[in-house]
Specification:
Strand content: 15-25%
Distance between the termini: 34 Å
Number of strands: 4
Structural class: alpha+beta
Shape: globular
Largest sheet: 4 strands, mixed
């Protein structure tokens, strides 16, 4: 397991990359059912200030998922109240684009 911290507003989130077993056990401990586990590759727990990513995924996929969960953290930190489905659609649309944009900004600043 690998973990690092990242600041979002006034909160510090721990980002953990974990194996399949730890990932599933953690989700179950939060009450996620086996049916709900299908397709989940990352999650955020605001109260525990935790972002967890399944470590078996490719590096580019993990980066996108980290952006995905950080976008959720930004929205939570902003205090904006939106429909959960709308938030998920918004975050899912932005995360891949943010990942690509971040890579391009990194290249521009390292000329």
């Amino acid at each position: 397991m690998t973990s690092k911290s990242i600041q979002v507003g006034s909160r510090t989130y721990v980002v953990k990359l974990v194996d399949d077993k730890t990932f599933v056990e953690t989700l179950r401990s939060y009450g996620t059912t086996d049916n709900d586990l299908i397709g989940i590759k990352s999650f955020i727990n605001y109260d525990e200030q935790l972002i967890m990513i399944n470590d078996r995924l490719a590096a580019d996929h993990k980066r996108e998922l980290i952006f995905h969960e950080l976008l959720h953290a930004f929205i939570e930190d902003s205090g904006v109240q939106l429909d959960r489905v709308l938030i998920e659609q918004f975050v899912s649309a932005l995360a891949p684009r943010m990942t690509q944009l971040f890579d391009q900004i990194h290249e521009l600043t390292n000329l």
